[in-house]
Amino acid sequence: MTAAERFFCADAARARGDSLAGTAPYGSVWVLVEYRGGWPPNGFDGLDLDPRTKAAVFTAAHAVRARILLIRRHGRHSAAGHRRWAVLRHDDSGGHRQEWGTWSRDQDLAGIVGALDRPGETGGPPVVLVCAHGQHDTCCAVRGRPVGRALSERWPHQVWECTHIGGDRFAANVVVAPDGVYYGNLDAVSAVTAVEGHLADRIHADHLRGYTDLFPPQQAAVAAVLQRFGPAGRHDYTVVGTHRDDNCWRIRITGRPPHPAVVDVEVRSHRTPPSQLTCRGLSMSSAAVYEVTAVSVG
User: Fold this and answer.
1) For residue 41, how many other CB atoms are within 10 A of its CB?
2) Which of 137, 194, 191, 125 is nearest to 166 (CA)?
3) CB 34: neighbour CB atoms within 10 A?
4) Which of 12, 42, 66, 259 has the fewest CB atoms below 10 angstroms from its CB?
5) Structurally, how many domains does the chain consist of?
6) Is 279 contained in some domain?
7) Inside any domain, residue 92
């Protein structure tokens, strides 16, 4: 196969017009492990670490449905010296909590287990994670690394490249944690614009995949409200009611001033025809799409 014939899932998704809204994986806890060497296709699971420590971290993370991500700074860095780990948590009150530590021996990663039992501290700056996991999916490297470079040049202390965060076909993908906001279909220019708006607490609908504390139809509803009424802060809108009838949802959202006080959104779901959704996955799969059919101010 020539380079011109090679399949790239992100190119195919753009050609199909795949919808972004409602595609953020659900979750509220992230475990980050700095690893400067090569990343295995399956990330943390594939690392050759002390078995007891690795099992303890995995078990503790699984208990709270945390996603474990390997991270590294953009560019080439020495594998020597202390590396960092973190537990990031978006709690039910909307608090954004973090705890950071360092490790040089495998056993030092046991600190993650204790951190998963503690609430963490508020007030830390958001962490910007750019998926650049080329061993998992080619598009994550081809599209992710230029975005990682652009964002790292602007915010060198907040930006990390990371392993697979889901939605390869939407590369380049960025998740801001512990805020729990996913962005996709980014390039170097649009990524800087999106993150700049995010850090100013003005989230735009453009490139928004969703908020990770919401389920897909709710994510699509919030994105539609942002598209209709303009950018807003991460917690300016709250989903207060969700009623389902088969493949249709009616979702009520309340807003803080100066945003609309009450907005009702109707969402309908359907599945796409089967297609190849990742670069490496040769099987054909369909994807759920959440289409907003009505937005009305209550």
Assistant:
1) 14
2) 137
3) 17
4) 42
5) 1
6) no
7) yes
**CATH classification of the domain holding 92:** 3.40.30.10
Q: What residues make up the domain containing 170?
A: 1-213
Who's near 123: CB < 8 A, 6+ residues apart? none
Supply 183's token pair.
């962005």
Residue 106 Cα distances to 34, 39, 54, 82, 84, angstroms: 12, 16, 8, 11, 12
- Whether residue 12 is preceded by a cis peptide bond, meaning omega within 30 degrees of 0, is no
Query: Token pair 């973190």 is at which residue?
Result: 86
Is residue 94 one of the residues assigned to a domain?
Answer: yes
pLDDT in tens, the chain (298 residues): 445 578 999 999 999 999 999 999 999 999 999 999 899 999 999 999 999 999 999 999 999 999 999 999 998 666 667 899 999 999 877 789 999 999 999 999 999 999 999 999 998 999 999 999 988 989 999 999 999 999 999 999 999 999 999 999 999 999 999 999 999 999 999 999 999 999 999 999 999 999 999 999 999 999 999 999 999 999 999 999 999 999 999 999 999 999 999 999 999 999 999 989 988 877 888 999 999 999 999 7
SS3 for 16?
helix
Coil/strand/helix, residue 247 = coil
Instruction: Check if the beta carbon of residue 64 is closer than 8 Å to that of residue 116.
Output: yes
Task: State whether residue 69 is helix, strand or coil.
Answer: strand
Burial class of residue 46, CB neighbours in 10 A (0-12, 13-18, 19+):
middle
CB 174 within 8 A of CB 143: no
Residue pair 256/188 in contact by the 8 Å Cβ criterion: no
**CA-only gyration radius of the chain, Å:** 19
184 found inside a domain: yes
